[in-house]
Design brief:
The protein is an alpha+beta fold and 95 residues long. The chain has one domain. Helix 1 packs antiparallel against helix 2.
């Protein structure tokens, strides 16, 4: 099992979730709709100086779906090249 975390600009949230649900119909996930912070290239703090914000999507997927998730994120990054979109994955174990 793999834990996937997607951190991205709120402007691409719907695009990402629709594609994930389309490509992996059984996918389950949790979203945190308002995420602020500082990334490598910009700050998204939701204030007057840095007004943008991100969202966070967390999903635990079967190993065979990892390539699909990577493909979805690759496609969205290509379509929205100017937006910050990151995917982090780690092996997970349910206890």
């Amino acid at each position: 099992m793999i834990r996937c975390e997607i951190i991205a600009n709120q402007s691409v949230q719907e695009e990402i979730t629709v594609l994930l649900e389309e490509k992996i119909p059984e996918i389950r996930y949790t979203t945190v709709p308002l995420v602020t912070g500082r990334g490598k290239e910009s700050r998204k703090l939701g204030n007057t100086t840095w007004p943008e914000t991100n969202f966070l999507l967390i999903s635990y997927i079967e190993d065979e779906n990892l390539a699909v998730v990577k493909g979805v994120i690759r496609a969205v990054k290509q379509k929205f090249a100017g937006e910050g979109i990151k995917l982090f994955c780690v092996r997970a174990e349910e206890i």
